[in-house]
Amino acid sequence: xxxxxxxxxxxxxxxQVRNKVFTNLGFLMRKTELEEKQVKKIxxxxxxxxxxxxxxxxxxxxxxxxxxETKRNEWKHEKRxxxxxxxxxxxxxxxxxxxxxxxxxxxxxxxxxxVQSLHKAIKQLLLEQQKLIYLVxxxxxxxxxxxxxRKVSKQAVAQQLNRVKIQxxxxxxxx
Length: 175
Hints:
disordered N terminus
């Protein structure tokens, strides 16, 4: 508990006495409005939380200058990095489209249509003709091996294959 000094006319606390004494002696001046204005609150991060800290005006000015310089350097670094490193994501975000030379969409679409129509045409052949097409073109068997399995000559299998090809051409023309 603070002691109270008594004078015949007034009652003073210790700090009031000190202020009166030093003010009268001229050693210490009490806080004036000017000194109060010289204190600023600056944001400061402590343990991930931003708190306002009271500092003198000159310290606040230095802090603000350091903060501005830090932000300026970060901005410069980002600008330099964006000039030297350009991501595909950033390019496409800006509206630029890159043509992939290895992919020809039109050719792929035409190829798919041809394959579909060829499958439709093969389904219209007789079962024995379908098996011959499968063995030669999908399994990769030779005419000699097919002839040996069927116990016919190689020329007979070749003739049958030519007839199937002609029939496929006719079916494809009509599709």
